[in-house]
Amino acid sequence: MASDEVIVRFDKVSHEFGINKPILIEADFTVRRGSKITLMGQNGAGKSTIFGLITGHLKPESGDIDIAHKLSIATAKQVIPRTDLHLTVREFFDKSVKVKDYAIEPKIEKVLEVVNLKAPLDRVIKSFSGGQQARLLLASALIQDPDLLLLDEPTNNLDKAGISHLTDFLISYQKTVIVISHDADFLNAFTHGVLYLDVYTKKVEQYVGDYFDVVTQITARIEKENMKNAQLAKQIQEKKDKANFFSNKGGQMRLVAKRMREAAEEMEEEKVDVRREDKTIRNFTIPAQNDLIGEIINISSFKIFKNHKPSVRKAHISLHKKQHLLISGPNGIGKSTLLEAIATNTSEGAKVKPAIKIGYYRQDFSTLNFEDTVHDSLMAVMEKKIEQDMRTIAAGFLITGEMINTKIGSLSEGQKGLVAFARLVMEKPGLLILDEPTNHINFRHLPIIAKALDQYEGAMILVSHVPEFVKQVRIDQVFDLEK
């Protein structure tokens, strides 16, 4: 459990992302040694920014950040930087440690064992699956043996076994951890408290208790504050009605009316600024390509990877209009490899009917050009390039204001995901290929995304390790690569 020693303190910290884009306004919170804390907030609220402020990579505009003397900090980011994808495992870990370590190989093997990953040290990072890369990110932080471990969406891409292994590790971990995640069951297994970054007030609310306790506390507080506001609104209206009545009487009654109005104004100020629920994206439809007739895709063979070695297996998969396929199997078996080969038409065993338009949602967002603005990225995939239509669709995915002119590379991972979905709506594909579409996405948006996929009328291939999400989507066939 946590000790009384405070190792991180934010005292009235304010920070902006660019000019006039406040992320934090006079935020206050503390983290105690040995505690396991969840950091919550809407996509793009600035959770990863808080990590940057803790590590010192970012500096606050005002306020004080106090970090305990000689506190070592390591971060497992959401994704491996693109510049590191060409490195070997050995080179990746060499880059992770701050001091050159000539005896690093036994340490690499030890941390890879902790994250339950067998990885040849000469293998290139890019060749690993998304789930294997997630384990490498965690291992690269653990090898630093930090006093404070910062985990940014660590369950993304992990299969059920990977999440279970990570959960067990965090339960028994003796040091301090702050985790950004949307996975409620995972968080509840080890959380001591929650820091909630409110996207509207730009403040950080601090709660004690496990994850479900805290969600209950937040819900109860909102209900109480809404009730108080409703009572005040009723009293304010009564005062205004009386003020109007007395003002029409003239003479001394006008003074009474004035006092009534002043009382109503004071009561307005007493209203509690109730935190608005996180906005959700609007219901949307991904239109299917017109004139879809006959077989859209046929898969006759595919590669799987066992102990990093490929082997070819036979298959008998045929998809037509309105047929949805779920591809399952453990991390590293070759799900993403198969999806990419289908999407790029490089698979020998999978044939897509000519003239079929493919909509491809990649878990690493590499189908997006990070140098494009959101505006240009969306306009590029529109059949009829009508500005108003583009902005209407974008607004449904909370892409508004300055975000529309922001470069893709500057967005949070969750915001990139919303841009990717907006593009699919505009592309109108005949074959929809989705590789872990729930990664990085605010949990409030997931039922809406599931509904859109459930209703999609083209052929669809889905990979997801989130059973609660998959249950909400119509699946006609399950293709387990392991079996």
Give the amount of beta strand, in percent: 15-25%
Helical proportion, percent range: 25-40%
Structural class: alpha/beta
Mean pLDDT: 89
Which residues form runs of ≥5 with pLDDT under 50?
A: none
CATH superfamily of the domain at 297-480: P-loop containing nucleotide triphosphate hydrolases
What is the total tally of β strands?
17
Termini separation comes to 42 Å
Strand order of the largest sheet: 5-6-7-3-8-9
Shape: globular
CATH topological fold name of the domain at 297-480:
Rossmann fold
What do you see in this structure?
The strands form four sheets. A six-stranded mixed beta sheet has the order 5-6-7-3-8-9, sandwiched between helices. It has 14 helices and 17 strands. The protein starts with 5 loop residues before the first strand and ends with a strand. Among the domains are: 6-72 and 146-215, Rossmann fold (3-Layer(aba) Sandwich); 297-480, P-loop containing nucleotide triphosphate hydrolases (Rossmann fold, 3-Layer(aba) Sandwich). It is globular, with a radius of gyration of 26 Å. The mean pLDDT is 89. The protein is an alpha/beta fold and 483 residues long. Helix 3 packs across helix 4. A hairpin with a 2-residue loop joins strand 10 (297-306) and strand 11 (309-319). It has helices at residues 47-55, 89-96, 104-114, 130-142, 160-172, 184-188, 211-247, 253-270, 335-343, 374-380, 387-396, 413-427, 446-454, 467-470, and strands spanning 6-16, 22-32, 36-40, 62-67, 73-76, 148-152, 176-180, 193-197, 204-208, 297-306, 309-319, 324-328, 350-352, 358-361, 431-435, 459-463, 477-480.
